[in-house]
Write a structure and sequence with these properties.
- This protein is 53% helix and 20% strand.
- The chain has 267 residues and is an alpha+beta fold.
- A 7-stranded antiparallel sheet has the order 1-2-3-4-7-6-5, with helices on both faces.
- Strand 2 and strand 3 form a beta hairpin.
- Helix 2 crosses helix 3 and helix 6 crosses helix 7.
- The termini are far apart.
- The structure holds zinc ion.
- Zinc ion binds next to helix 1 and helix 3.
């Protein structure tokens, strides 16, 4: 990959919109190109700062209702216009001409508002996007671990004083998932524990933070931007596990991890 292509893909990468192969190609380029790696890091830092300090507002129900109504009316009007003899002539004109010259600025403004409204993701989708973006970021050179150690007794104490909770850190090297290390990350505008494991050449990122859910939620597997993502909650903790590893081995990791956490929690 050349630098120009790398730069073209960078903002999609930072937004977690590249598929797994394209993201991998980009990280391979950045591993050997300090200029691109630095540019990408600045972009990710900016993104992280906005994510951490930026304000978010959900659309109030009344606004949603108005937009829905306006959309229905707009659909009806479009049908009327194209059905009339004059309308058929209009329908053949270039769309930009109609939107600017005939339909007027209000329609253009409406279209912009609607596009913004439709592109607002749900809270769960936003969380998944944050996890994918964080996973991407961790794959950049020297970003995987703030404390690089395969020893759980080194990694676990590293978190104390940095977090207001103690994340479970387990060793699964015997099962073929060696611990690589830990780092602090920001998800949902709060610091969380991120633990990195490896399976052959695949990186697994496990995110842990205290949740509000009263009940445990069983693991659920989804695919986000080409990555497998498993979410579950257990004993008051939220977990997200992401990797390009195949689903079967990732589920196997989750089962072993949960069993080991339970075992370690016993007195
Ligand atoms: Zn480059």
């Amino acid at each position: 990959m050349e630098c120009t292509e790398s730069r073209d893909r960078m903002s999609a990468f930072a937004d977690g919109e590249l598929d797994a192969l394209a993201a991998w190609q980009l990280t391979q380029h950045m591993a050997h190109c300090p200029e691109c790696a630095q540019a990408c890091e600045q972009l990710l830092d900016l993104r992280a700062a906005v994510r951490q300090h930026g304000q978010r507002h959900a659309a109030p129900p009344a606004l949603r209702q108005r937009l829905r109504q306006a959309l229905l009316e707009e659909g009806d009007r479009a049908k009327e216009v194209t059905a009339s003899p004059r309308g058929r002539k209009w329908a053949r004109l270039p769309w930009t001409w109609i939107s600017l010259g005939v339909a007027g600025a209000s329609t253009a403004a409406f279209a912009v508002t609607l596009a913004l409204y439709l592109s607002v993701p749900s809270e769960a989708e936003r969380l998944d996007q944050e996890i994918v973006a964080s996973h991407f970021r961790s794959l950049m050179p020297d970003h995987l671990a703030d404390v690089a150690s395969s020893d759980q007794h080194t990694v676990k104490p590293w978190f104390s004083g940095k977090l207001d909770f103690s994340p479970p850190v387990v060793d699964l090297a015997q099962a073929g998932f060696p611990l690589v290390g830990g780092r602090l990350d920001y998800i949902k505008q709060r610091p969380v524990a991120a633990l990195a494991y490896r399976r052959h050449q695949h990186v697994l990122n496990l995110y842990v933070w205290p949740g509000q859910a009263q009940r445990d939620a069983p693991p659920r597997l989804t695919v986000r931007q080409g990555y497998h993502l498993i979410r579950w909650s257990r004993s008051g903790m939220e977990y997200r596990l992401i990797s390009d590893l195949n689903a079967a081995e990732l589920m196997d990791f989750e089962r072993r991890l949960a069993a080991q956490i339970d075992q370690d929690a016993r007195p």
